[in-house]
Write a structure and sequence with these properties.
This protein has about 600 residues and is an alpha+beta fold. The chain has helices at about 10, 15-20, 30-50, 55-65, 75-80, 95-105, 130-140, 145-155, 165-180, 185-200, 210-220, 235-240, 245, 280-295, 295-300, 300-310, 390-395, 490-510, 515-530, 540-550, 555-570, 575-585; strands at about 85-90, 110, 225, 230-235, 255, 275-280, 315-320, 325-335, 340-355, 355, 370-375, 400-405, 410-420, 430-440, 445, 455, 460-465. Strands 7, 8, 9, 10, 11 and 17 form a 6-stranded antiparallel β-sheet that branches. Strands 12, 13, 14, 15 and 16 form a 5-stranded antiparallel β-sheet that branches. The protein has a 4-stranded mixed β-sheet with strand order 4-3-6-5.
């Protein structure tokens, strides 16, 4: 990890499985073209968003150290973010949704440190430093919104995915990489788009993760705030897109009052959004989040919760009424009258209490899975966890005694009790047996030659959620995405253009020193640009900005004339040229 970004203590507290996603920013890799793209987008955004964004945006730019003229360094951002209780790390493109959410729960922004190509200056489906740094970072300076973001991460990281969610994540990640990569063939993009569309059409019932991801999209990424008639922008996707931030305020985009129904509204990252949701204030976001959380298996548990974990085919956790937590890959459950009576995991399993693994009950002990009844004993109204020492002795549930426990659901556990494990409140949470047999009618669920049988104690499953209770119980390094972002390849032509941008940047920093020399340099730069890179527009706009202050009307008019013809030649970028000139001349007439 880059030592320069470790100044913020929040980063030091990140668990190992999140640290695996962090990469160095490598600030020296940013080219002069990259810096010009940042500068153009930020100047356009600050000019326009000062009128339509939530007031927290401009305040946040100052508080988070985001400058208009240069791409921010992670070191500088972390030093300033620490003052408002947050941090930032660089990552490689989209990371898995659960990991993204968990970073938020630790109050850490994940920022893709790469920046969009000039050809995608208005919008890119791939995350980049404009979207993450200039979009997300400023708004978290608002304490109420920052707490919503943290809480969203805390809840969202526990959302249960379906096995298709990860396939969709990888497909969208690949599509975003290919669309942003320089020189990708249309055939490859078409294939990736078909793969995403095919998955979108065959996802089945939306998982918890899919639903909460929708809520995240329509708030954190594309949210509006205020009234439907006069909304303001706060979503990072809108704050970082000079095209969509303007379009979204038009009547062409439907405005909908934000409520929990947004969880069922899907989205397409590759296109402009046809509708947006408007929250009256930031507190309403938290209200809807809690409303959604109340419906999650995290809070409801039960048979539906464990079935969601089984469908996910991934490591998850159930928590019993005693507080005992079982983490592993759940594969089956027996039920009666809509209630679970016996559950099974397959493969490595760990038992925890209050998110801390129980000594002697990690994945080495339970390497082949874990199974246990859940519920009350048949014909006995008092659950084992609620029994006093006198009650336990009365039912022969004591050490070194052979006992036969008949649970509701026809689960029978028979064997010699070795010992019991209690929680901090004195309730038994685990009973260990030797020579134990567990049956369900004629089915044998455990037999003596399998070794020691550890039986979980709990009358109900009160919670079910994604991931392990104790992150140290499992090696989660395998969750790193398979695809890698594609870096731009250096070419002789590209290097020459980069050199021209770098020269203009140097002129900008020295123009107050030697005006005559600056004019000579700019004229030479423009002549090379016009002859060898006639399709590039941004550098010509940057030169005009300098000429406005240097009072060389003849060269200024020549470059304006060049841009006029470029607008005719490339109508798709005409509005970008006009937008840049409007910024420079601040509404005054110019010759185009």
């Amino acid at each position: 990890m880059n030592s320069l970004i470790e100044e913020n203590p929040l980063i030091e507290k990140l668990p190992k499985h999140l640290r695996q996603f962090i990469k160095p920013q490598n600030y020296s890799d940013y080219t002069a073209v990259n810096q010009a793209v940042w500068r153009y987008v930020m100047r356009k955004n600050v000019d326009y968003l000062s009128k339509v964004a939530h007031y927290s945006y401009l305040e946040g730019l100052q508080k988070t150290g985001i400058e208009t003229d240069s791409i921010p360094s992670m070191y500088g951002m972390n030093r300033i973010l620490a003052e408002i209780g947050w941090a930032a790390v660089a990552v490689d493109g989209f990371i898995p949704p659960n990991a993204f959410m968990e970073f938020q729960a630790y109050k850490v922004l994940v920022i893709e440190s790469d920046i969009r190509q000039l050809e995608h200056i208005e919008y890119t489906p791939a995350p980049d430093i404009i979207h993450e740094g200039a979009g997300h970072a400023p708004i978290i300076a608002n304490p109420e919104y920052a707490e919503y973001l943290r809480r969203f991460g805390e809840i969202g990281s526990k959302a249960i995915s379906s096995h298709k969610d990860y396939q969709m994540y990888e497909a969208i990640r690949l599509l975003s990489i290919l669309k942003e990569a320089e020189g990708t063939s249309q055939e490859k993009i078409d294939d990736a788009e078909r793969a995403v569309a095919e998955l979108q059409n065959n996802m089945g019932e939306l998982s918890e993760m899919a639903q909460i991801r929708n809520l995240h999209w329509w708030t954190v990424e594309y949210g509006l705030i205020g009234s439907v008639e006069n909304p303001k922008i706060y979503g990072a996707g809108l704050l970082s897109s000079i095209g969509e931030s303007a379009l979204c305020m038009s009547e062409n985009v439907k405005k909908i009052p934000y409520d929990i129904s947004a969880a069922y509204q899907s989205f397409d990252i590759t296109t402009l959004q046809p509708q947006l949701y408007v929250t009256p204030d930031f507190s309403h976001l938290s209200y809807v989040l809690e409303e959604f959380a109340d419906k999650m298996a995290l809070r409801t548990g039960g048979l539906s919760g464990i079935n969601k974990l089984i469908s996910s085919s991934a490591v998850g956790t159930i928590e019993l009424t005693t507080g005992l937590q079982i983490s592993g890959t759940f594969t089956s459950v027996l039920a009666q009258d809509g209630k679970p009576v016996y559950f099974n995991t397959t493969g490595e399993t760990a038992l925890s209490y209050r998110e801390k693994e129980l000594v002697g009950h990690g994945k080495l002990t339970h390497s082949d899975g874990f199974g246990s009844p859940v519920g009350k004993l048949k014909g006995i109204n008092l659950a084992i966890e609620d029994m006093s020492p006198k009650d336990l002795k009365a039912y022969n549930i004591v050490e070194n005694e052979i006992v036969k426990l008949e649970f509701e659901g026809n689960i029978i556990v028979q064997g010699e009790i070795i010992t019991g494990t209690r929680n901090v409140h004195g309730k038994i949470i685990l009973i260990s047996f030797r020579n134990c047999t567990v049956t369900n009618e004629k089915n044998v669920l455990f037999q003596p030659d399998w070794g020691i049988y550890d039986m979980a104690v709990g009358k109900k499953i009160v919670s079910a959620f994604s991931g392990p209770a104790d992150n140290s119980s499992f090696d989660l390094i395998c969750t790193v995405p398979a695809t890698k972002t594609i870096k731009s390849q250096k070419t002789e032509e590209g290097n020459e253009l980069e050199d021209l941008y770098a020269k203009v940047k140097r002129v900008r920093s020295s123009k107050a020193v030697d005006v005559s020399s600056c004019l000579t340099d700019l004229e030479a730069i423009f002549n090379v640009l016009k002859d060898k890179h006639p399709n590039d527009w941004l550098l010509a706009v940057e030169i005009i900005e300098l000429l406005r202050d240097l009072n060389d009307k003849q060269l200024l008019d020549e470059i304006l004339f060049h841009l006029y013809h470029l607008k005719s030649k490339r109508p798709e970028i005409a509005h970008l040229i006009t937008g840049g000139l409007d910024l420079i001349f601040n509404g005054s007439p110019y010759w185009v």
